[in-house]
Structure formats: C-alpha cells, structure tokens
Design goal:
The complex is a heterodimer of chains A (330) and B (327). Chain A has 330 residues and is α/β, with parallel strands linked by helices. Chain A contains 11 helices and 7 strands. In chain B, 38% of the residues lie in helices and 20% in strands. The chains are: A alpha/beta (330), B alpha/beta (327).
C-alpha cells in the first residue's frame, strides 16, 4: 500500500479527492475541446494536458478566495480551481458573447475574470509576470494578506519580463509566487535549445529569492512547495520561484503537428507518468478513490462537460457592432 | 495667482493628487530620494515615503508592467520613464497590455495608469535624449496621449490623467520644464482630456500644433501681428485620440492651415490631422495644408549646428506662416 503523503501536508481525504476531481475535469474538458476542434466546431485549442497536477496542486495551496492569479494559456486547472466554471470555459472555446474572459474577443485560454481575481492575459508571453508583481506590490503597500501567483512556460522564462519582474519582486520582497510549468517544449524547441542552465529554479539565486524544482506530475509535491512559498510570502519573507517539471502530452495547439519534432515513443513514455493516471493510483492504493467514487466522478464530469458543450454551442455570438465597445470607459 | 514653471506645475499636480487619494503612487528610476533627474518628484519622497514614491530597478518594462498590475488591482500608479527615448523596452507592456486590458476583458478589468515621460529636444540631448515618441503610440485605440504646452495645462491635465480610468501617456517637453512659466491656480482643477484649446484667436491663418511648439508658434504669431497678419492657434493638448471637431472648426475658420510638430514629418501626429482636414474641409481651404516638422532622419544630432537644423524654433514657424499667409 502507498504511504499516505497528504495527511502530513494537512490535506484531508476529501480535499485530495477534490484535487483529483478538478484535475480530471480539466482533462475531460480539454479532451472535449479537441474533439470539437477536429469536428470543425471550434477554431482553436491549446491544452493543459500533462500539467493538471502542477496546476491544481498549486491552486489548492493558495487562498482561493483572496489571492490573485495571473495564469498563462495552459492553466485550465488553475482557473477551474479558482472558480471559473466548465460552462464559462466552453463559452470561451466557442467565442460566445457570454464568455466571462473576453466576451468572445480573445482566443480560448486567454483567461481573465475579475470576480475570481484572475487577471486578464494576452498572447505575448510573460507580460503577466510584472503584472503579478504589481499586484503583490499593492498587497504590500496596502498591508493586505493576499499573495499573487503567476505561471508561465519554461520557454517564456527567457523573456525580459521574467527577469525584470522577478528582480523587482526580489528587491522589494514582494508576496508573489512564480511557477514555471516546465513541459519540456516551447512549441517545437526542446529545453536543451531553450535553457543555458536546464534548471530554471537556479535563476532564483540571481533574484534574491528561494528557488525549487519539483515533480510537476505530483500534485502533493507541488502543493507542499507552493504552500510553503505562500506562508513565507504572507509573513513578509518575499517571493519564491518554483519550477514544476512535467510534460506536454498534446501538440502545442490544435494548429501544431508534433510529429515533426518529437517521436511517438517519447510521448508514450511520458504518458506513463501522467498525473491523471498516477494520482488515481495513489488514491486507490490508499482506498480513498473507490470504484464507486470513481464512477460517480466520471458520470458527474461527463454530464458537466456535456451540459457545458451544449449550452455554449447554443449560446449567441456577440452582435457585430459589439466590437466597437469598451475601447475606453463608457 | 502664483506663477510657476512647467515642472513645478507637474510636481504640484502629483502632490495634490497624492494628498487627495492614497491609492496614487509614483514609480520609476531615481524618482525617490533624488526626486527625479529633472526634479519632477522633488520633495514627494519626504512627504509620502518610500512606497508611494518608489525607486525601481533600472528596467522600463517592469516599471510599466508592475504599474499595470497595480492598476488592475485598483491602485493609481504614475510611472515615470526617465526619458521618452527609453520607453521602448516598455512598448509591449503599453501597447499589448495597458491599451488592451479593458477591451480584451470585455470591460471586466481596467488599467488606470499614467506613464509620464520627458520628450523633446533643444537641450543637447542628441539621438537618445531628444526624441518625440508620440507617433509610435498614436494609432493604438485604448491609449490616450496628452502633451501639455503650458504650466496651467500641465497641472490640470496631469490631474485629469491620474483620475482617468484608462491608460494615459503624459509627455512633458523637457525644455519647457524651466523655460515656460505661467500663472497656475492654487486650487484644485482638472482640464478635459480629448479637448483641444484655442491659444490665440486670429482670422488670417490657422496653426495647429502641440507641446513646446505652441509656445514657439505664439511667439511667431506676435511677429506677424506687427504686420497685420492674425494667426489662429489651436493647441491639440491631447494628440490621441484627436479632437476632430476642434481641428475642423479651426481649419475652416481661416482656410489656410499650417501644422507644426517637433517630431519628424513622416507618419507624425500631423499626418492624421492633415487627413482629418482633407476629409472634412476641402471646400473651405484656400491653400494646401502645410506641414512644418523635423527632417526625416532618425533623430536629433548632438552637434549644435545639426541640432539647431533639426529643432523647431519661432523663426522657422514665422517663415512658414508668412509663406502661407501670402499664398
């Protein structure tokens, strides 16, 4: 039998089941979006698959009713954990008017929802890092207890905004947690062609903050390191850089064919470590995820995904002239 | 009414807004203890403390980007770029982020940031301490660009910019800082962003310009007045989005229009002003629209001969005005 590792982290059986369920919902929504794309119903998908453990593990370690997040485009697991619904994500996938992220203005996975403190994001990568630092600066100025949490890919860690933002946070000891989701590819370019030092967390030293590399396929390991980072942040000890290493199980996006730059065997090998599978094994070994609960989750998630799809597909688009609104305050 | 310099008007506006609203804070390079390289934030560090007058690392994209994040949270950041020339590393943050935050979130988020930057030449600043950069940002819906020409306007417009709920680029002419002095009320007032202002009434020719060139044009107009030529001078004040009504009205008033900028001519603010007049005033014009601008070279050279050749001055404007008046 597996060793119970979540109890010592202060996580109840119910909480780890909730984590698993959130990961599974992200995966199933993502898979549905691919089907819809291949069926010609939605123009574009960019996936979370392979990164759900890091995303959900991290989100559960945050205060989901107070902290601010600046997610990047793969973070379906993060935004689900922060209160965005499956229906809302599908509305975004179908570019419908009711999409809370952008009202159908942005491509899917460009998250943003003020009521859940999800900062609006763009396509140029890494611009969200200074934004999260700015929110953390506000927390410090206003003497508030929340933190900001920002994510990005390992390729994006090469951008100037990564360096500029983290150094700023390091200088002013700001309560911001930066998590690099290292999925080993920036579209087609592998880490050895992206990173002079393959360990992104080593850069933390240069910014005057602690840095940790953890197994991004293990939600509990990610939970632990983010929880500790949050504790440091709210006690005034400043920022943390975390690198969660996993693997991108899909092509970069629905417009990419990954067979051009990596072989099938490599992907199959990575699938053995897929957290949707390995975390389920852990929970089953401990007798927490029973067949009955698993069936219940599967049925519930299937109906959530079906309902979200049906609702979003039937929902209206924005009127054409809506494009003219909200350039400035109205 | 006290007389103050253009830069004192800027400092006064900052101080008054920081006193009025504790969400207002300043961030930039050397803005804290030193009070800014031009002294625009002098005294504010002592009055408001380190975190409301924040010395940042030397990194312009972070100055803009951290400000944007704080603005999204609900603060009212006033970011300073030490020179407009150095705004370039922050262009992605300004154009891809600040300008689009309200639009891309369908009005869910907003970004009430002011980014101040000293622009302009005539100070031996050479290529990278003299530039006018407004044209780079002047086709980005979502942004507002304000360029005041007097101390009175500087105070009222900066206060309006800080209270505006959208991102505002506020370009201050660095030579105007100490050259221009004028009466500035001690009481609180704001001037409308997006509205041009008639700085001189006249019936013979129309000059449309902004920033320090307004001052030069007013000087030139006095010379022409000695010969009985009365110039109508419209100060754009906000160069983006433009006050189309005021531009059309000013152009129609005399039918002879001279547009003046210190920036180089191609694709400048003047180009759009000329297009607006062309579209709307064809039958009211008595002469081709004239543009007086810097030459189309990358930027202002250092040597005094070449700098003077580039830089706008009252004599160049006077000459162009006389030619137009005689057309």
């Amino acid at each position: 039998m597996a060793k119970n590792r979540h109890e010592e982290l202060g996580l109840s059986n119910e909480e780890v089941l909730e984590m698993y369920k959130t990961m599974l919902l992200a995966r199933k929504l993502d898979e549905r979006m691919w089907l819809l794309n291949r069926a010609g119903k939605i123009p574009f998908v960019i996936s979370c698959q392979g990164q759900e453990a890091a995303q959900v593990g991290a989100a559960f370690a945050l205060n989901r009713s107070e902290d601010y997040i600046a997610p990047y485009y793969r973070d379906m697991g993060v935004v689900l954990a922060f209160g965005m619904t499956a229906k809302e994500l599908m509305l975004s996938a179908f570019a419908k008017a009711e999409d809370p992220n952008s009202g159908g203005r942005q491509m899917p996975s460009h998250f943003g929802q003020k009521k859940n403190r999800i900062l609006t994001g763009s396509s140029p990568v890494t611009t969200q890092v200074p934004h999260a630092v700015g929110v953390a600066l506000a927390a410090k100025m206003e003497k508030k207890d929340f933190v900001s949490f920002v994510t990005l890919g390992e390729g994006s860690s090469n951008q100037g905004d990564f360096h500029e933002g983290l150094n700023f946070a390091g200088v002013h000891k700001l309560p911001v947690i930066t998590m690099v989701e290292n999925n080993k590819y920036a579209i087609s370019v592998p880490i050895e062609k992206q990173l002079g030092n393959p360990k992104v967390s080593d850069r933390a030293l240069g910014y005057g903050m602690p840095g940790f590399t953890v197994d991004g396929n293990d939600p509990l390991e990610v939970y632990k390191v983010v929880k500790e980072a949050r504790d440091r942040a709210v006690s005034g000890e400043g920022p943390t850089l975390i690198e969660a290493v996993s693997y991108r199980l899909t092509a970069h996006s629905s417009d990419d064919d990954d067979r051009a730059y990596r072989n099938k065997e490599e992907v199959e090998e990575a699938r053995k470590l897929d957290s949707i599978f390995t975390f389920a094994v852990y929970l089953k070994d401990l007798g927490i995820l029973t067949d009955e609960i698993e069936n219940e989750f599967t049925n519930e998630i299937t109906s959530i995904v079906n309902e979200a799809t049906d609702y979003a597909e039937a929902a209206p688009y924005a009127e054409p002239e809506e494009a003219l609104k909200y350039v400035y305050e109205e | 009414m006290p007389v103050m310099s253009y830069i004192q008007a800027v400092t006064t506006a900052l101080r008054e807004e920081m006193q009025r609203d504790e969400k207002v804070f300043i961030l930039g390079e050397d803005v804290g203890k030193k009070g800014g390289v031009f002294k625009a934030t002098e005294g504010l560090y002592d009055e408001f403390g380190e975190y409301r007058v924040l010395d940042t690392p030397l990194a312009e994209s972070a100055i803009a980007g951290v400000g944007i994040g704080a603005a999204m949270y609900g603060m009212r950041p006033v970011a300073e770029m030490q020179f407009a020339d150095f705004i370039m590393p922050a262009v992605n943050q300004i154009i891809s982020e600040a300008a689009r935050i309200r639009y891309r979130s369908n009005n869910d988020w907003d970004c009430p940031i002011v980014i101040r930057a000293p622009y302009g030449g005539g100070v031996h600043g050479a290529l990278y301490h003299s530039q006018s950069v407004e044209a780079i940002f002047a086709n980005q819906p979502g942004l507002k660009i304000v360029m005041p020409s007097t101390p009175y306007d500087a105070k009222g417009l900066l206060k309006a910019a800080i209270r505006d709920n959208d991102p505002v680029l506020f370009f201050e002419h660095k030579r105007a800082y100490r050259l221009l002095k004028g009466e500035v009320p001690t009481e609180d007032y704001v001037l409308p962003i997006g509205k041009a202002d008639v700085k001189r009434e006249g019936s013979d020719i129309t000059i449309i310009t902004y920033g320090l060139c307004v001052h030069f044009a007013l000087q030139a107009a006095e010379k022409l007045a000695e010969d009985g030529i009365e110039a109508h001078i419209l100060d754009l004040r906000t160069v983006y989005p433009l006050d189309k009504e005021a531009i059309i009205e000013a152009a129609k008033k005399t039918g002879k229009v001279l547009l003046v900028t210190e920036d180089n001519k191609e694709g400048s603010i003047l180009s759009e002003v000329a297009a607006i007049i062309s579209e709307n005033c064809l039958f009211d014009l008595d002469a081709p629209i004239q543009r007086l601008a810097g030459p189309d070279i990358p930027a202002m050279p250092y040597a005094p001969t070449m700098e003077k050749f580039f830089m706008m001055n009252p004599d160049k404007i006077e000459k162009a005005m006389r030619e137009l008046a005689e057309f």
